[in-house]
Amino acid sequence: MLTPLTFPKNSLNTLISAISLVVFTFLDLLDFLLCYVYRFLDEFLEENPIRCYCCEKSGKEGSSDREVSDTLHERKNIFREKFFLNLRRDYKVKGGGQLRHARWSDCCCKSCISWQGKEERKLHLVTNLPNQGRNGYENETSENVIFIHGFLSSSSFWAQTVFPQTTRPNLKLFAVDLLGFGCSPKPADCLYQLKDHISMIEKSVIEPYQLESFHLVAHSMGCMIALDLAARYPNQVKSITLLAPPYFPSSGEKASHNALKKLAEKKIWPPMAFGSAVMSWYEHVGRTVCLVFCRNHLIWERIIKLLTAKRELYFLVTDMTKHTHHSAWHTMHNVICGGAKTQDNNLQIIKRAGISVKIIHGEKDQVVPIECSYDLRSRIPHAELRIINGQDHNSTIVGREKEFTKELDEFWFSAPKTN
User: Fold this and answer.
1) Residue 196 main-chain phi, psi, to 5 deg
2) Residue 133 pLDDT grade (very low, low, confident, very high; cuts 50, 70, 90)
């Protein structure tokens, strides 16, 4: 009788480490070579090429703002650092002119460029506003709620899950497409810092709707923006609900690098972790992935529809390509990584203000480590933490929409400020 072939655990780990070393060394080389490919193409196809971070060190032009993440400039690449340093220094970028709205490697379909040509840049917004005088609620004060989606997502994450489940007519719900995602503007002349996202939410929601108070609900990367927004409006924010917050306790100059290493560690398994590492560490490999999939998303959507015999695709699928590489790359580094420097200060403001906070995390989340929520809870002692067994990064909401919406409703109407 044949016995199955087994490997000692230590030997298996050694093998995986060796494969990882080979794979990421190859990606270092590939990213370095692609850098020169895109420099050559951009010279001919762009009116004013956008400088990549291979040829710019922290502390030079454009990097003095503390909200610009160190991880944009200081990602190590053995080939770029040791073998071709002089070539990197010799490269010069054309000056003058205004950045084009779309780069040649971005999609230019009607949906992706619908924001261009408008006089004022505002976020795409999906609202669910109450009907006045319905069911005797005409004298009740409305509760305003701003929903902020996560990375590679859109307002659909809330509009197709929570919005249909709400029953209270005195709720005003606002779900935004963040700057650079969904149907919102995706300017090339933007670094997508926290202050850029906050400014657009203010200009698109808080100011035009004159919100004097509001609740915040955020998922994944959106939690970083929600915490920053709450710290800027501590007297207006009534509660914060955070789902899978990517919070990494750290301070000082290495906070950004700590966040990058923990959220996108260079490893080949599981596949989702490998994908995060590739897209977070390799600027030009990531741009190539976006060139293939995002620029041609209409073709891929038609192919998927044919293979699945479906007339409409699930929003989680279509949202994956509703961005440019420039917007996703900078948001990843300047919001998630760069934002790590300011989060402890934001938490102190929220703690002093006594804003009600609820943290929800899926037990099987492979995108954001569950330790992030435990660490966040330790910084806000009055926060409520709920770990949902058997759920992952998205299924804390998707698939349990009614239960989640009921939980939100109870939290909004029963959790006043603690101070």
Assistant:
1) -70, -45
2) very low
At 93 the pLDDT is 36
Inter-residue contact 184 to 125 (CB < 8 Å): no
- How confident is the model over 306-344, as pLDDT tens digits? 999 988 999 999 999 999 999 999 999 999 999 998 899
Q: Is 280 a catalytic residue?
A: no
Active-site residue flag, 114? no
Catalytic residue (choose from 153, 156, 204, 220) = 220
Q: Nearest Cα to 393, choosing from 71, 153, 182?
A: 153
393 noted as active-site residue: yes
The rounded mean pLDDT for the chain is 86
How many beta carbons lie within 10 A of that of residue 365, not counting itself? 22
Q: Which of 28, 42, 69, 149 is catalytic?
A: 149
Per-residue 3-state assignment (H helix, E strand, C coil) for the chain? CCCCCCCCHHHHHHHHHHHHHHHHHHHHHHHHHHHHHHHHHHHHHCCCCCCCHHHCCCCCCCCCCCCCCHHHCCCCCHHHHHCCHHHHHHCCCCCCCCCCCCCCCCCCCCCCCCCCCCCCCCCCEEEECCCCCCCCCCCCCCEEEEEECCCCCCCHHHHCCCHHHCCCCCEEEEEECCCCECCCCCCCCCCCCHHHHHHHHHHHHHCCCCCCCEEEEEECCHHHHHHHHHHHCCCCEEEEEEECCCCCCCCCCCHHHHHHHHHCCCCCCCHHHHHHHHHHHCHHHHHHHHHHHCCCHHHHHHHHHHHHCCCCCCHHHHHHHCECHHHHHHHHHHHHHCCHHHHHHHHHHHHHHCCEEEEEEECCCCCCCCHHHHHHHHHCCCCEEEEECCCCCCCCCCCCHHHHHHHHHHHHHHCCCCC
pTM over 0.85: yes
149 has catalytic annotation = yes
Predicted confidence (pLDDT) at residue 88 exceeds the cutoff of 50: no
**pLDDT tens column, 364-384:** 999 999 999 999 999 999 999
